Amino acid sequence: MPDQAAQQREPASPNAGRGKQEAEKTLVEWTAPARPFKRRDRDFYITVVAIAGIFGLILFLVEGFLPVILIISLVFLFYVLSTVEPEKISYTITTRGIKIAARRTDWGVMGRFWFTKRFDSQLLVIETAVFPGRLEVVVDPNQKTQIQKAVEKYLTHEEVPASGLDRVANWLGSRLPGNK
C-alpha cells in the first residue's frame, strides 16, 4: 500500500532538470498563531519555580553557580513564552513548498507528515532533512481537510510513534497543575 501512495504523489519539483520551471501556485492559505499557546495559572508557576529551585540547589552543590544561572534563564524563557501571546502569521501551501510568514521551505527537504494537538491548537508536523528536524505549523481547524489534501500531493501521511523522551515529557507534563 505505501508503494501506491508513493506512486500517486507528485514529484517535489516536476520540471527538475528542464529549462523552464512551472510558476508557483497557491494551494491553501490561512492565518493562525505563530505557535501553540496556553495561559498558565499561578499554581503552575509556583510548581515550576519550586522544581527549578530544588534542581538549582542540587546543581549548585554539585557543580557551582553556572548551572543555576542556566536554570534561571530557562525558567524565565518559559515564563515569557507562556505569558506573551504569539502573533498571527500567514501560512501558505504552494506547489513548491510551505511558506511560513513569507519564508518558504521546499518539498525536497520534507519527509512524512501527520497531525497532532498541543494545548488547544491543531498542528501539522512535517519531518525535515534540515535542522531542527521537524516543522510544526499551527493549522486552522476549518481548513484541516484542505491542508491534508494539498500536502498529500507531495508528502506521505504517516504518524511517527512517540519516542521514549516524548512519553517521559508527556508524563511529567501531565503531573503539573493546569495540564489535565
Automatic annotation (TrEMBL):
This is DUF5673 domain-containing protein. The chain crosses the membrane at residues 44-62, 68-84. Residues 1-24 are annotated as: Disordered. Keywords: Membrane, Transmembrane, Transmembrane helix. It comes from Candidatus Woesebacteria bacterium RIFCSPLOWO2_01_FULL_44_14.
